[in-house]
Amino acid sequence: MRIWKSLVLAALLSGVVGIAAAEEVVLNAVHFTPTQNGYAQSFLKFVQKVNEKGKGVVQINVRGGPEVIPPIQQGAALRSGLIDVIDTPAGQFLELVPEGEVFSASTKTPWEVRENGGWDFISGIFEKKANAHLLAHVDAGSGFNVFTIDEPKLNSEGSIDWSSLKIRSSPLYRDFLESLGATVIVQAPGDVYTSLERGVVNANAYTVFGYASFGWDKFTKYRVDPQFFKTDVLISINKAKWDTLSPEAQKLLADTAVEYERASYDANLAESEKQAQAMIDGGQKVISLTGAGRDNSWRLPRRRAGREWPNAIPPTSIS
């Protein structure tokens, strides 16, 4: 009888343990850059924080980066539920949510956008159009630069002859660069090294942060200042999946996201300055547009692709 009772008790306990283990949810995730890149490394820090706090509740399993799902397809993969979490710029899935451009045009910090109601507003749009619940706007605070192979020629006003440049671009700033008069080729980051090497393009538009990890600085020995737009990297979770999570799991993810959002902002600015100096020490020269040349480059009175660009896109500085 004692043996029987022991067996029953053991079975009951194992059942309880099984139920508890089943409550831990594992979310599959991808990031938009190769693992060695700074943006991927930043996302992995966020994942580490979630996994440390979420033991027994929620875990994130990172499946990889663009080799798993190309960046341009990650938004659609999230919407369909093929992947649970993505670390991907809003500019990579503008075909689903064109309103995502507001992140690159905003002059507010992520926490200011949360405080003024903008975050809830744009999150609602992402939920409806992309089946995406936004967790965080990470690695914010800096913008994009144009990097060139040859020294760009300046006119008497101090502006660049953009028509002489064939610039690799992302979908986010394609229209902007075309409005300057440049020839634009949209390419995924993984294709840029070969394009620079073979002369398919003679310029590249990207952030200082993570630039050298691709090896692009080997070819582009000039950086054009000031920066334009702002980075728009979002950590998003499939909305249907989010709705199935327990309140405890949702709170843990949301709280960690808000905490990391601010931490990554400061880290991005500090690391961008460090990496900018490293490229300068390696021989890269900075071409700073000033006066009328600066104003004429970043202020666009003409319409392009059916859209009116803002008359003034506030440039930012690495320092």
Report on the structure:
Strand 12 (303-304) and strand 13 (307-308) form a beta hairpin. It contains 11 helices and 13 strands. Helix 2 (38-53) packs antiparallel against helix 10. The chain has helices at residues 2-22, 38-53, 71-80, 102-105, 110-115, 118-130, 174-180, 189-198, 239-244, 247-281, 291-298; strands spanning 25-31, 58-64, 85-89, 132-137, 144-148, 166-169, 183-186, 203-206, 222-228, 233-238, 285-288, 303-304, 307-308. It is of the alpha/beta class.
* Helix-strand sequence: HEHEHEHHHEEEHEHEEEHHEHEE
Largest sheet: 6 strands, mixed
The proportion of strand residues reads 15-25%
Kindly state the mean pLDDT as a whole number?
87
Low-pLDDT parts are: 1-21, 300-319
Please report the total strand number as a whole number. 13
Portion of residues within helices = 40-55%
Q: Order of strands side by side in the largest beta sheet?
A: 7-6-8-5-9-11
Label the structural class. alpha/beta
Distance between the termini: 77 Å
The Rg value, from CA coordinates, equals 23 Å
Principal-axis shape: elongated
Individual helix count? 11
Task: Please name the defining characteristics of this protein.
13 strands; 319 residues; 11 helices; 20% strand; alpha/beta; disordered N terminus; disordered C terminus; 6-stranded mixed sheet; 5-stranded mixed sheet; single chain
Concise synopsis of the structure shown:
This protein is an alpha/beta fold and 319 residues long. It has helices at 2-22, 38-53, 71-80, 102-105, 110-115, 118-130, 174-180, 189-198, 239-244, 247-281, 291-298, and strands spanning 25-31, 58-64, 85-89, 132-137, 144-148, 166-169, 183-186, 203-206, 222-228, 233-238, 285-288, 303-304, 307-308.
